[in-house]
Amino acid sequence: MKTLSITSLLLICAALAPAQNIEQAWDVVWSRFYLPKVQTFGDYLSSYEKGQEQSHLPTADEAKRQYPNPCGYSTGMEDGAILGGAMLSVLCDRFEVTRDEALREKAANVFRGLKLCATVHGVRGFVARNVCPEDATGVFINSSRDQVTHFVHGLWLYHHSALADDATKQQIRTLLADVAERMIACVTPVNDFDFCRADGTRCPLGICRMWNVQPHEAARLPMIYAAAWDVTKDERYRAQWRRYAADAIAQSAEPGPNKPAYALLQMQCSLELLHELEPDTELKTKIHACMIKVRDLAAKRFANVRQQLAKKTPEQMAMLGPDWRKVKEWKDQKGYANPQWGPFREIWSLTREAGESALILLMVEPGLISETQRQELAEMFRSFDYTHNASCGLIYHLAAHWKAKRDRVF
After folding, report:
1. Which residues contact 261 (CB under 8 A, 6 or more apart)?
2. Residue 87, class by beta-carbon neighbours within 10 Å (0-12 exposed, 13-18 middle, 19+ buried)?
3. Among 169, 175, 223, 405, which is most buried by a count of CB atoms within 10 Å?
4. Does residue 4 lie in a domain region?
């Protein structure tokens, strides 16, 4: 029997370390961020004490009163649809790598949470940000195109994965068709292309506008129609997809150099879906070119975020979020009172941006990743202290890791 050298053992340990550390992230996401009563994920932790991690979440009464604001901004109920969609991506990739049958139930649970966001309020096609765990019915009435983007992208991936059974696929068809129908009905010049709040009124913030938007947002509307057509084959949705597709891609050509990672990731999700389904060779080539441009912007973002993270101490990275009710500073956003998190906002964002920008690098031609980037990804997974981090950004670290594993980047 051969004896391994010290060097060989060190190399093996170095290779295993990212995978071992990422399993800690997996455990933390499910034990601390997952909300089993509504099968969704919360945005941040305000405690590391078991059972108290998200005690800051809005009560049923607060959600009913739309307090502190109709978006649920800064309350922990802000991004549930986004996180659920992203988590379905994680589960699909992890299953493709491991074929672990236990993932079927986890994926089914995440799907049920997303379905709850889209149905509990009784407003067809409206995707709520999250659902209040106290009564499993309360929602905030102002969603956003960001929520819908990840909701649609995640359900579309799940529909095409080996995880979803026939009954689930039928439910996905209904959900995506409902979203598309809402867009057809509401996203019109009369509404300034806004898909409106759950109460039928226009969103005052501009975050529900689906057309005449910035370049990184232009592909969202045709992406929704394309996904609905793909799973239902209803020509009604195909006609809408083709109506907007070429113009949207033309608008997407120059996304701007300073967009945050979450904006670039949502752009890449939209482009990924459109690229997969596009029948016209010339337009498909243009979509691919856009995706490469987004990838290059994300590479710069990834490098910048890593530099910022390197300056943070372990104590800073372990910072907990506040009980938003008790913070001193509140910001007025066009009539929406938004409690400010203070220094925690930076830690929350940096954690998230690291995962988001890493994920974008892997969403188009992962073989283009340089050896330096590969090492930097591995180092991030290996060195991040996932057990002492209060940001839901951990989900994007999982997404980047399992996509890298799926495409054999490591």
Report:
1. 298, 301, 305, 352, 353, 356, 357, 360
2. buried
3. 223
4. no
Find residue 391's DSSP bridge partners. 44
Mean pLDDT calculated for residue range 233-249: 98
Q: How many domains does the chain have?
A: 1
CA distance 282 to 294: 19
The radius of gyration computed from the CA coordinates of the chain, to the nearest angstrom, equals 21
305 contacts 38 by C-beta, under 8 angstroms: no
Length of the chain: 410
Q: How far apart are CA 177 and CA 237, in angstroms?
A: 8
Residues 37, 378: Cα–Cα separation, whole Å: 34
Q: What burial class does residue 314 get, using C-beta atoms within 10 Å of its C-beta: 0-12 exposed, 13-18 middle, 19+ buried?
A: exposed
* Mean pLDDT, rounded, for 175-180: 99
Q: Is the pTM of this model over 0.70?
A: yes
In a domain, 1, yes or no: no
Q: Report yes or no on 6 lying in a domain.
A: no
Q: What is the pLDDT of residues 50-80, one digit of tens each?
A: 999 999 999 999 999 999 999 999 999 999 9
pLDDT given for residue 1 in this prediction:
41
- In single-letter form, the type of residue at position 97 comes to V
Q: Assess contact for 296 and 255: CB atoms under 8 A.
A: no
- Tens of pLDDT, residue by residue over 82-95, are 999 999 999 999 99
Cβ atoms of 333 and 73 closer than 8 Å: yes
Instruction: Give, in degrees to the nearest 5, the angle at Cα 193 between 74 and 211.
Output: 85
User: Does a structural domain hold residue 91?
Assistant: yes
Contact between residue 59 and residue 135 where contact means Cβ atoms under 8 Å apart: no
pLDDT tens digits, 135-153? 999 999 999 999 999 999 9
Task: Determine the pLDDT at residue 360.
Answer: 98
Which CATH number characterizes residue 356's domain?
1.50.10
Distance CA 304, CA 115 (A): 36
Q: How many of the other CB atoms lie within 10 Å of CB of 26?
A: 19
**Domain limits at 196?**
12-406
What is the rounded distance in angstroms from the CA atom of residue 174 to the CA atom of residue 165?
15
Please list the residues that pair with 333 across neighbouring strands: 336
Helix and strand numbers, DSSP H then E, in the chain: 14, 4
